Amino acid sequence: MASLTNVLAVVVLFMPLSCSLLPSAGAATAAELVTWKCDNGTYYAANTTYQSNVRTLLASLATNASRSSFPAGFATAVLGASPDTVWGLGLCRGDTSGADCGSCLALAPEVAFGRCQGVKDVTVFYDRCILRYSFRDFLTSPDNRQVQFRGISSDNVTSNAGWYDVLVVRLVSALSDWAAFNTTPRYAVGVMNSDQGFPASNKDVLHRIIGLVQCTPDQAPAECRRCLKTLIDEMPTVFNGTVGGRLLAVWCHLRFEVHEFYDDSPMLNLVAPQFMPPPPPASTDQQ
């Protein structure tokens, strides 16, 4: 697989309130639509060969990803002859496989032929799966910046927010190492525990940060780690004491929350060091 290099300009999706705000039961298998990207400016007409190819491609991705044993929950496809060729990718969250994976990806036509009707390049993010199709060959030269979504919680840490941000990055970085170098699915979930806790704007005191990272499983370990690092490097400018958030893209993504949102047991269970406030400045008074 080609290196994740800079190919095209960034397309960033923003949402004023993250869909990560609301807790979801860990055992729930229903897929929740997070956001979507209709790459406007590229269109096809109804009842054309391209539309037929998209329909066939979407069905193929859902079927193949649900049946795939390795890599589980992942499929790519290319369908049709030029100028009606369609490239596609489907990826399910690491704890979602088999029928649940197929059911999630099978929802994509609702966006493809509804909100994005007639658009030739579409990406759909559900909480349990991601799907993209395009008239461009985005599979040969992966660029994780082509489609990005930033989801930010409306709740904030009200004390020691900078230390909270440090712990989030430490957790996500540790999970990124685990996903890239210790797993073949390129997926990891884990927890950072803090005895001290962090007061939040919703009046809660937060003692646990829960994180998830994932790459497409066809990436080599170092390639996956580089992909996640580009997202981690964005975190300080995106999340400033927010209690939860996510950076979603096609080739890798990350998420952190203070409630459980996955079905697995955590791969990592970390303990936060005690926060030590900086010493007061030395007195300049002269005796």
TrEMBL record:
* CDD domains (alphabetical): Gnk2-like
Tell me where the signal peptide lies. Answer: 1-20
Tree of life domain: Eukaryota
Which keywords does the record carry? Kinase, Receptor, Repeat, Signal, Transferase
Q: Which Gene3D superfamilies match?
A: Gnk2 domain, C-X8-C-X2-C motif
Query: InterPro entries, alphabetically?
Result: GNK2, GNK2_sf
GO MF terms, alphabetically ordered: kinase activity
Which Pfam families would you find in this protein's record? Answer: Stress-antifung
Does the record's keyword annotation contain Nuclease?
A: no
Gnk2-homologous domain location is: 32-138, 145-261
Q: What is this protein called?
A: Putative cysteine-rich receptor-like protein kinase 9
